[in-house]
Amino acid sequence: MALAHTEKANPHWVKLSKAEDLSHIPGEMGLPIFGTTLDILKDPLAFGLKMLEKYGPVYKTNSFGGTNVAMLGADANELVLFNKDKVFSSEQGWGPILNNLFPRGLMLMDGDKHRMDRKTLSVAFKPAAMQHHCEVLNAAISEGVAAWRGQNFKFYDAIKKLSLDTAASSILGIPWGPEADKINQAFVDEVQASVGIARKPYPFTKMARGMKARQYLLGYFTPQVAERRAKGGNDIFTQICLAKDENGALLSEDEIVDHLNFLMMAAHDTITSSATSLIYYLAKHPEWQDKIRKECLKIAPAGQPVQYSDLGKMTVTEMAFKEALRLIPPVPSISRRALKDFTFHNHFIPAGTNIGISTSYVHLMEEYWPEPSKFDPLRFTPDKIQARHKYAWVPFGGGAHMCLGLHFAYMQIKILVHVLLTQNRIVIADGYAPKWQVFPIPRPRDGLPITLEAI
C-alpha cells in the first residue's frame, strides 16, 4: 500500500516549472545538491528574514529537492489559502514532501475528492461525537497529569506521551498496550522523514526509517477496519470506518487507514508542540496562569471534569492558546503548487511552480502585531480580531483546507489547562528560555524542564 512519490506516478499533476522559467525571480540556489535546505533547517525564520531584506516578499530558493518560490505576508496567505480562482494545489504542494508517508491524507487532496472525504470524515467531529471525545479526554488527561504533580520533568516528553495516550483513547478507542513505544516511535520516524534531506528511502536514511514505520502502522491498523465496522463505537477510528460518503458508500479499507495515519500524526505531533509552547509562555508569565486559573475554577472545581457545553466559556484560556500559536505555530510554513500562471507583487509566476507561504513570518509582522515578540493574549479580544487582516493569523491554515480537527485541538488544550492550573502552578528556572527546533514541527531542544508545584 506504500505510494512512492514521483512526478510520473501522478500524471494529473501540473508539470514542474524549470529553473529557467523562474530566472526572473530573485533569490539564491545555495550549495550543490543541498541547495539552501541546511540553512532553512538551521533557522527558518532568520533565513526568511534575510531573504526578505535582500530580495523582498517574493524570492526563490533551491530547497528540499527542488526550486521553490516563497511569498510572504498576509496578502500572500489570503491569495494562496482562500484560493478563490483555484490556482493552487495542496496535493501537489505537499505531495513531494509527504506522499511517501501520508498519501491520501486530507492535506494531499484537492477539489471534489477533498470535499467529499472531508465531509465524510467530519462525522467524527460532530457534536455528539465531540461530547464523547470530551468525556474520554477528561479522564485520560486527569490520570496522566496526576503523575506529574510535585515533579520536575521535561514537559515536552511528558505531553508527547500523554498526547499519544489520549489519541489512543479518543481516536482509536483502545488503551495502550505493550506496543505503545513502537507505535510512538513509528509516528516520530514518519514525521522526521518528511523533512529529511534524502527524498527516497535510501538505506540508513530518515526516509527509509519513515517508510518502514508507515508499513508497520498500516499493518497494525488495517486488520481492525472490519472489526470496527462489525462492533461499532464512538471513537474517531470507528466513526470513520462507519462513515458513508454523499453517495452512500463506505470508504475503502486503504482510504480509512491512510486517513487515520494522517490524523494520528496531526493529532499527536501538532498538539504536543502547541501544548508545549503554551505551557512555556504561561510559565514565563505567571500572571496569566492566575487569570486562567480563575476562569477555570468558574467552569468546574479542581479535580472535576470540564463539560463539553462549558468549553466555549473558556475565553481567556482560548486567547492565551491563540497567542502561543501565534508565537510558535505548529506548522511554520505551508506548501502549494501553482496550477495556473499568476502574478503577485508584480512577479509573474508560471504554472508548475512550488509555492511556500510562511506562517511564522506573518505571525510576527509589526503592522498586525505591535511588539510582536511579546506574549499578549489580549491581542485576541473580539474587537482586535475584527480589526486585523483575516489571514494574519493562520496556525490552522485556511480556506477549504482549514484544519478539520481544530475544535478537537481547542478542546484538548482547554481540558489540559484546566487540569493543570486548578491544581498546580507551572514554574521554570529564572531567566530560562528554550532553544526551539522548528522543523518538522517545533519543539524545545531540551524538552522544556518545568516544575509542577501543587496548590
Ordered list of secondary-structure elements with their pairings:
Layout: E1 27-28, H1 37-42, H2 44-55, E2 58-63, E3 66-71, H3 74-82, E4 88-89, H4 90-98, H5 111-121, H6 127-146, E5 152-154, H7 155-172, H8 180-194, H9 206-221, H10 224-231, H11 236-242, H12 253-284, H13 286-299, H14 315-327, E6 333-338, E7 342-344, E8 347-349, E9 354-358, H15 359-362, H16 382-387, H17 406-421, E10 424-427, E11 436-437, E12 443-444, E13 449-454
Parallel strand pairs: 1-2, 3-9
Antiparallel strand pairs: 2-3, 4-6, 5-13, 6-9, 7-8, 10-13, 11-12
Helix pairs in contact: 6-7, 6-17, 7-12, 8-9, 8-12, 9-12, 10-11, 12-14, 13-14
* CATH class group: Mainly Alpha
Q: What spatial order of strands do you see in the largest sheet?
A: 1-2-3-9-6-4
Give the overall shape: globular
The count of β-strands is 13
CATH superfamily: Cytochrome P450
Biggest pleated-sheet summary: 6 strands, mixed
Using the CA coordinates, give the radius of gyration.
Answer: 22 Å
